[in-house]
Amino acid sequence: MAANLKIVFALVLFSLLYHQGESSNKCGVTNIKVETKRTGNTIEGQPEYKVMITNNCPCAQSGVYLRCLGFSTVQPVSPGVLQIKGDSCLVNNGRPIRQGKPVVFKYSFLQPTDLIPQRSQISC
Question: Which residues belong to the signal peptide in this entry (predicted)?
């Protein structure tokens, strides 16, 4: 009986570890979604946009970089939320973005900038 219990426990443990690894293999920068919506407000005559960056992966993703070519704003964005580094932007100061906990910021400029996920690191 004890031997059977050990085998069942080992199988359950293996299954949990296998599926956790499976989740991380399926996750990547493609699970980072960027949604930009116009708020209807204007700042210094420029339309304001609200950006929501979400992680649709059960594993946290850190070191998230977006392609942000030409990003500019008349409304300051906290560098803890978005740091411009050339044509890329570091999100959330490199800290993990967890599923269900989006990073949100607003900016104002004549046209919205395409913010495209480039790379990230998976942490399961």
Answer: 1-23
